[in-house]
Amino acid sequence: MRRHGKIVNRYHIPYVLARQEKLCIKAIEARHIDHTAWPEVPGVAYTTDLEGMLDDPEVDIVEVTTPSDLHFEMAKKALEVGKHVTVDKPFSATAAPAREFFDLASAEGVTVQCYQNRRFDSDFLMARQVLASGRLGHVFEVVTSYDYWRPRMLAGKPLDVVSQAAYGHASHCLDQLISWFGMPDHWRGEFRQLQGEGMANDYFDYDLYYDDLGLKATAQDNYSTAFPRPSFALYGDRGAYIKWDKDQQERDLKHFYLPSGHDDFGLDAPGQWGTLRYEDAEGLHEERVSSVRSNYSQWYDALYETVAHGVPQLVTPEETMMQMRILEESARQLR
Fold it and tell me: Could you tell me the CA-to-CA distances from 328 to 74, 91, 208, 319 in Å, in that order?
């Protein structure tokens, strides 16, 4: 792993440590090592020597958790020495370097994929279960929202496409929809800069259309939503499902409540369950639907199976290339 900061300590280390029977952290490399902000993980080597870490034959997988502008440089170095690589979102700035990653990995006989941990968000998995149940009939619209009330977070900040809303959060939402429904037949994307031209991208709205399914899947987000929209909303010709709250793992991590040793980690309270309303031959029904149990360590379960046993990688190159194509084409709207 690279970069001894929030991302690696909050979204990676706890989930690897919960799978120590499969994976272990050999080393964490960063340009500067600071143990004052985050505690040192016992048994892990902390180093500023990237080349030395990459030369270590005991290192099978390199996770790139650097700022976005360093993703290409770091991932390429690791692939060139035959390491399996995962790259934090956004995978790359454009489709061209993404394709180079996949071609290089294929040539070296290794894998590279984007760290799409939110495929294991409980709200996403529960929405999938509800749709699969058939109780909504023909589902013609699915909407996922990633809203925040953070109007000052990007206040006064200039445009930086790869580090702001579209690439930062749409990377999650688009991946969820593409992994669920496949490649869209066509799409419409809208990026906005609520502070005006030249300023930060703080709003996106995507519509993905699946003609054979008769479905429109929408991913939306903005940083100025005092009343956030539902995390997931499904609409069918026999009913609807609404889930207001997003997955709780991030909330628990922010309070240093970790997955290891806590059976209730990331678990929704009953008041956070989704609401299902549908009609059948017996009439109209409404019920609360308990949330599915989930954990981002499941990402590492899949990674282990790929590296140790040759199981196809969880996030396919085709899925990532489609996402990069959508992001890159839509970003041209920004000025």
Answer: 21, 12, 15, 14
Q: What's the CA gap between 116 and 247, in Å, rounded?
A: 14
Instruction: For the beta carbon of residue 227, count every other beta carbon within 10 angstroms.
Output: 6
Can you name the residues that pair with 190 across neighbouring β-strands?
A: 205
Q: Which residues pair with 113 in a beta bridge?
A: 86
- Distance, CA of 217 to chain centre: 17
Q: Give the whole-angstrom CA distance, residue 270 versus residue 162.
A: 37
In terms of C-beta density within 10 A (0-12 exposed, 13-18 middle, 19 or more buried), how is residue 224 classed? middle
What one-letter code names the amino acid at 259?
Answer: P
DSSP annotation of 35: T
Report the C-alpha gap between 221 and 215 in whole angstroms: 20
Q: How many CA atoms lie within 13 A of 61 on its CB side?
A: 21
What pLDDT, in 10s, does the model give residues 61-118? Answer: 999 998 888 888 999 999 999 999 999 998 998 899 999 999 999 999 999 999 999 9
Residue 242: its H or E element: strand 239-243
The structure tokens listed for 87 are 């790259």
**Tokens 């489609």 — which residue?**
322
Whole-prediction pTM: 0.94
Which of these, 61, 97, 159, 23, lies nearest to 320 by C-alpha position?
A: 97
Cβ proximity of 199 and 159 under 8 Å: yes
In the β-sheet with 112-114, what is the strand arrangement from edge to edge? 61-64, 84-87, 112-114
pLDDT digits (tens, 9 = 90+) for 17-43: 999 999 999 999 887 666 556 778 999
With CA atoms as reference, report the closest residue to 83 among 107, 54, 42, 103. Answer: 54
Residue at 53: amino acid letter? M
